[in-house]
Amino acid sequence: MQVWGRRVSPVHLVLWLLYVTMFALREHEYVAEAARVTFGLIGLVAAFRAAREHTLPSRQRQAWRAVAVSFVVLVASPPLLMLFDGDGTSSTADDITHIAFVLALLIALLRFPLAPMNTRDRWKTGLDAGIVLVGGTMVLFYTSFGPYVEAHGLNTTVLITAVVYPVADLALLFVVARALLRGSDESAQHPLRLLTAGTLVLFAGDAVHGYLKGGGQLELHSAWQFVCWLTADALLAAAAVEQSRVRGAVARSLREQAGRGKYLPYAAIAVAHLLMLAAAVKEHSLFPWGGLALGGATLSALVLFRQTLVQRESDEQAVTDPLTGLANRSLFRATSNAGLVRGAKSGRSSAVLVIDMNGFKEVNDTLGHKSGDQVLIEFSRVLRDCVPAAGLPCRLGGDEFAVVLADLLRPEEAYEVAGRLAAAMGPVVIEGKLIALAASIGVAVSAPGELTHDEIVHRGDLAMYRAKSMGPDTRWAIWTDSLEAVA
Questions:
Q1: Is the CB of residue 240 less than 8 Å from the CB of residue 108?
Q2: Cα angle at 172 between 168 and 173, to 5 degrees?
Q3: What tens digit of pLDDT does each residue of 372-419 get?
Q4: In 3D, which of 362, 389, 355 has the Cα closest to residue 463?
Q5: N- to C-terminal Cα distance for the chain?
Q6: Which of 130, 226, 244, 287 is deepest in the core (most CB within 10 A)?
Q7: Alpha-carbon distance 287 to 359, whole Å?
Q8: Could you give the CA distance from residue 485 to residue 118 in angstroms, rounded to a whole number?
Q9: What is the pLDDT of residues 82-138, one digit of tens each?
């Protein structure tokens, strides 16, 4: 039975208990303000520590300096509002501090180191973030800007008042979407998720706040407003605390995939269609606008589903060898890296089998490349049959193959796979001729947290050359320290 082994830090536990307590007392304005200041002070200290952590990348330290500025604004806001309370400028002071808070977060998110991309991928990420931005614009137009203008009329003063909040929030939303879609440095991955979650709560809160304010249903401060503020503040403080706990010893390889962030554009499109349907229902205009909105939503869903299938096929082709259907070198490296990282956390071993076919060049020279391709296909079938479902058989190129075995309870499991593969080798019929399949197999095993991908593959190579030196028949060998001396 798998046991969840990640320990909850005392600081995170205190933050959670503080949030629950203050949430229960949110009806009392002074208690809620004190909670905001407390979260701000905790976040300020943690962000300052992260900004001074020299093992973190320079851009990341700059990002946390900007986060620290946002916490300074958060801590300073209640005293400023109390200072201006009663002279008619408290609402203006509240707007200024809020915009300053949002701008500091915006600068912070812009400074976080993100995964490198080529020009095409940057365009794709920009377009996906643009889709999220358009969806967010529709949300704010429906909930905030539209009702406010409808209630107060359209003039320069109203336009500036109604636009400042949405523009700042939309800029923040675009940067958050960009960060989630591209992925971040490994050392910033968990803190950035908490940071983006806090900014999304802030965006949602501003949207509904604008809707209620536009309809004259909300005063300057309310219990509902503090719910949004407290949730966002708690998440931002937790992000700073998490970053101050994550040191530079964590591997800094940038993620190639952004995980759940890839679904953001689809969510934005769904929200846009839901708003159109809600507007049609609200205006009692099911014909024609309700039917058209429903039809548009259905068409978009079908197109997105088809696009998902096409994208999945494209992704599979990018990591699959076209001849054998096995994983290619790119997926081999990614899977091996993931297995080694996972094994370091779970306490399980990982292994790599490096395989080189024997006598393949002679087949190509005597029977031609077409027959050689058939030999590779037959060998890949044997490989699939012998590798357990949890393993990953790969073709690295030419007659070079490999197998990734992760989450091993004991090293002998890798040796058993190598023995099973060696025993399965035999003659196959290619275009009426009997051809013997033979290969040299090198086995390398990494204890939890012991080796990197390049190191374990190097050991597998040495063991494979040891097996090849034993003769043309199928052999397999295990890496030992003595092979390093020979190399």
A1: no
A2: 115
A3: 889 999 999 999 999 998 899 999 998 999 999 999 999 899 999 999
A4: 355
A5: 42
A6: 226
A7: 73
A8: 41
A9: 666 555 555 666 677 778 888 888 888 888 777 776 677 777 777 877 887 787 777
